[in-house]
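Weekly modeling sync, notes
Attendees: S.R. (lead), two postdocs, one rotation student

Agenda item 3: backlog of single-chain predictions. S.R. asked that every request posted to the team notebook include the full sequence so nobody has to chase files. The rotation student volunteered to paste the first one in as an example of the format we agreed on. Action items at the bottom.

Example entry:
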Amino acid sequence: MLMKYLCTAFFCVFLIVNHATGKEFTEHDMAHYRERIKSMFYHAYNSYLENAYPYDELRPLTCDGQDTWGSFSLTLIDALDTLLILGNKTEFQRVASVLQENINFDSDVNASVFETNIRVVGGLLSAHLLSKKAGMELEAGWPCSGPLLRMAEEAARKLLPAFQTPTGMPYGTVNLLRGVNPTETPVTCTAGVGTFILEFSTLSRLTGDPVFEKVARKALRELWKTRSDIGLVGNHIDVISSKWVAQDAGIGAGVDSYFEYLVKGAILLQDEELHSMFLEYDKAIRNYTKYDDWYFWVQMHKGTVSMPVFQSLEAFWPGLQSLIGDLDSAMKTFLNYYTVWKQFGGLPEFYSIPQGYTVDKREGYPLRPELIESAMYLYRATADPTLLQLGRDVVESIEKISRVDCGFATVKQLLSRWAEPAFLSTLLQ
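Predicted structure, as returned to the notebook:
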């Protein structure tokens, strides 16, 4: 998971500095940071190859590996698009061949439906669509044919049993060999229901099999029907009964990518239904959760505040706002989040907005990329030099607080720069 975050973070910062035009940053500055980012990526990537392959992930403090999501050498899938963005066609081609030769989805493992979709299916689809730019030999009929596409389709078919519920909303876990366990809980998070339309519709359009897009759309439409009278959705839902189990409404953990996929799905598919769904949610979110350009958690039926906190996962929101053209709101919220970054040198998992400090036991920073992704989208839309400063700060912070001999490690506890001369804790996990 950590390498996934790093790949996304490095990718976004690289794109920011690669398209920089701000007067405060010279071409020499840009070239310097591009090379820094490449060096950081290869420090993590080579550490994985040397110490953790073929496991899913590197453990950077112990310099070994572990399987976490199904034993697919997942870090290689995560890294493929970044390798090409950095210009390394040779390694892209090598890794693509390694994956084709070694991945087996007929395995008796329990896999997260959500994670397998966004990381395995999504990663393989991205690699397939980038394979022409990477100089790979293409099959006749590409992009509707190819080994990476077939792998993505095979992985997605392993997930289809999870959608066989009375509502069409999927279970959260599926066994890749045996399907859904009879004792599997029917409770899953909102994002686990609504984060399939990008990968599954792409699969349907490329393979000609409508089943993937069909199940993804049915899940979205069933989730849409469960909105409260004030237009909000909760955090966890029973996919058998459509009853809400956790009724906190917000834009952060457990919900976030549902909204993201409505917007990006609308853009990718030119789909007015998805666009209209998001605009209705956006109106309710503004009316009930927005306070001074922050977003609180509220009770989904009443709109009363349940948690006045900022979660680091919410930092994707300004980027999403930029995609729908709401740049003024996006920048105001982004600057709130950037203030937290400047206070701590990273985003703590939970930040109490009234207290202006971290929440107990949620002070960690697992190198999440959401704020950097928002900066990338906003910079492409505005060319505001403040966003270049964020890119620079990210590079310097990650190098200072997270770099270890075998990659980059999660920071266990962030301390305020404003309160602690040492700037940040060095407690790593």
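Discussion: group reviewed the output briefly. The CA atoms of residues 285 and 349 lie 21 Å apart.
Action items: rotation student to repeat for the remaining queue; S.R. to check formatting next week.
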